[in-house]
Amino acid sequence: MNFNNLFANLWVEKYRPTKFEDIILTDANRKFFEEIKQKQETPNIMLTGSAGGGKSSLSKIIVNDILQCQYLYINASDESGIDTIRNKVIGFAQTKSIDGKIKVIILDECDGTSAVSSGLGRTSAQQALRNVMEEYALNTRFILTCNYPHKIIEPLKSRCQEINIVPPFEDCVKRCVEILKQENIKVQNGNRDRFYNLIKSYYPDLRKAINTLQKCVVNGELIIDENVTKTDFAEEIVVKLLKKSDITQIREHIIHNELKFSNDYHILLKGMFEVFYKLELDINTKRTILLYLSEAMYKHNLVMDKEINCFAVVIAINEILEKKV
How far apart are the C-alpha atoms of 224 and 227, rounded to whole Å? Predict the structure, then answer.
């Protein structure tokens, strides 16, 4: 099997943006990076945002297209220890560039680096990095990307300009439409609404939306199963909660019907959020429930067990509704 061809055929790689004009950004963020391109100077930058929003692609576009400078790329989740800072980062940062321009070090998924000193008195990677940023500020800049900025120590944040990367929804839809056109994929009328809802269900994770679209292509036609985007199941769960059904039975019902939401609990949580949002409930009750659901959606990418995270919010909502009796 030719893995290089297989990799190239993945839409997320084939259509990964490589130029500044191709990356999806808000107007404010685009203006910020246009100024960097004009001045050919950049501060230390921390790119934050949900997975699949374009942080890694943007970091490489900054060095390859905007600044066109020497750079060192490190996947910090794979090389998370202080030895990476000592051996790779310092080694690259302490020398001047060949062309006299600034050099850039990209620490992708920096929230995976160690933030706490060990019990043996060893300095953590993040603690060591803050000193490196200051010592080599004359000729080296840093671009950090992270999904969870709360995992980055405050002294490191204060040394960076934080930019939240959230691609505008309509632009995500346009990008997916462009990909389908480039691939000559037919979309029948019955699948157009499902196409839109599919992107909405995964937003702001454009990468996951594109991967799912590719999986839905059969013989050159986009065929989206109704279970991928329908919110009927979320409505079922909300109805059961409103009827004060036994929560253990609700959990069993969810587990036995995971295929109805593609085994993606984030889709279920988001669906429940939309259903509760449209319901006519006491405003304080609705507000509390929506806050619980939004917190569960935030925790979704942090927890080990997605189903338990979902069930925990089901219990919380059940308790809220019980009190309203």
Answer: 8
Please give the average per-residue pLDDT across 78-106, as a whole number.
86
Indicate the length of the chain as a whole number: 325
CB atoms within 10 A of CB 140: 25
What CA–CA distance (Å, rounded) separates 59 from 151?
A: 19
Q: pLDDT-derived band of residue 95, with 50, 70 and 90 as boundaries?
A: confident
CA-CA-CA-CA torsion sign (294, 295, 298, 303):
negative
- DSSP strands (E only) in 30-128: 45-48, 71-75, 103-108
Residue reference for tokens 């919380």: 316
pLDDT of residue 44: 97
**What is d(CA 251, CA 253) in angstroms, rounded to the nearest whole number?**
5
Q: Are 234 and 275 in contact (CB under 8 A)?
A: yes
Residue for token pair 């050919």: 40
Position 97 pLDDT exceeds 90: no
Backbone angles phi, psi at 70, to 5 degrees: -70, 140
Tell me the C-alpha distance between 272 and 321, whole Å.
Answer: 15
Domains detected in the chain: 25-164 (3.40.50.300), 169-225 (1.10.8), 230-323 (1.20.272.10)
Tokens of 108: 């992708």
Split at pLDDT 50, 70, 90, the class of 156 is very high
Highest mean pLDDT among 57-66, 103-112, 197-206: 57-66
Residues 254 and 307 sit within 8 Å (Cβ to Cβ): yes
pTM above 0.85, yes or no: no
Does 123 or 42 have the greater pLDDT score?
Answer: 42
Cα 124 to chain centroid distance, Å, stands at 25
